[in-house]
Amino acid sequence: MAEIWNGLVEAFRLIFTFDPEVMSIAGLSLEIALSSVVIGSIIALPLASLIHFNNFRGKHILVSVIQTFYSIPTVTVGLLVFVLFSHSGPLGGLDLLFTPTVMVIGQVILVMPILLGMTISALSGVDRNIIDTARSMGANSWQTMLVVLKEARFAVIAAVVLAFGRAISEVGLAMMVGGNIRGFTRVLTTAISLETSKGDWELSMALGIILIFIALVINIIMNRIQQRR
Does 220 fall in a domain? Predict the structure, then answer.
């Protein structure tokens, strides 16, 4: 018990003294997660709108497949990205494996189903009268999409926040394609795993507290969004 208490005391000391290694790991985690969610949103929001507003054969199956991938294991995505970017893979020539860039690419793939599926659900919940009103006032397809997206903005923001939580808390993908290289690709989750296996309770606890704090912030934001809806 004393060991745990001493570890917590040292963990808080590392946090409140802004230990360079702790801040570096936390900063890289936030940078990679935010980058992946921003890129994923730029791709997913227009694509989700196109899927929602167009009727085509297999649409319901496509949406079901997207929703199935909400909980895809991170190691599965990690394996896919590793195979693509390994030296023997089709994209190996880019030499991106074990870099922050490939970690962002992997996390974009990881969060895309959440962003797509939840945005489609959000658009489906918008009153049909709003769409009819926009079209009756002369709005074209893209303008109508923007009107509906604006109407569903709180649900869309909730999807983005949830995707960020998924990105920053994953470990399998980051470990497989990032390599957990100190000062380069080491993020909160991979560092916690490594330091715990080494018996460095203080550093792993400090990083764990930061990750819990981020999760708390995400939960607060989600609750606020739900209340505004």
Answer: yes
* CA gap 55, 94 in Å, rounded: 38
| 198 within some domain | no
Whether 51 maps to a domain, the answer reads: yes
CB-CB contact of 105 with 96 (8 Å): yes
User: Which domain covers residue 119, as residue numbers?
Assistant: 34-180+210-228
The CATH number that applies at residue 109 is: 1.10.3720.10
Cβ atoms of residues 168 and 30 within 8 Å: yes
Which helix (H) or strand (E) covers residue 24, if one does?
Answer: helix 20-53
Phi-psi region of 54 (alpha: psi -120 to 50; beta: other; left: phi over 0): beta
> 121 lies in a domain?
yes
Distance in angstroms between the alpha carbons of the first and the last residue of the chain: 45
* Residue 68 DSSP symbol: H
Q: What is the pLDDT along the chain (229 residues), one digit of tens a residue?
A: 666 777 777 778 888 888 899 899 999 999 999 999 999 999 999 999 899 888 889 999 999 999 999 989 999 999 999 999 999 999 988 999 999 999 999 999 999 999 999 999 998 888 778 777 777 787 777 788 888 888 888 889 889 999 999 999 999 999 999 999 998 999 999 999 988 888 877 888 889 889 988 888 888 887 787 676 5
**Number of structural domains, the chain?**
1
- Length of the chain as a residue count: 229
What single-letter DSSP state applies at residue 181?
A: -
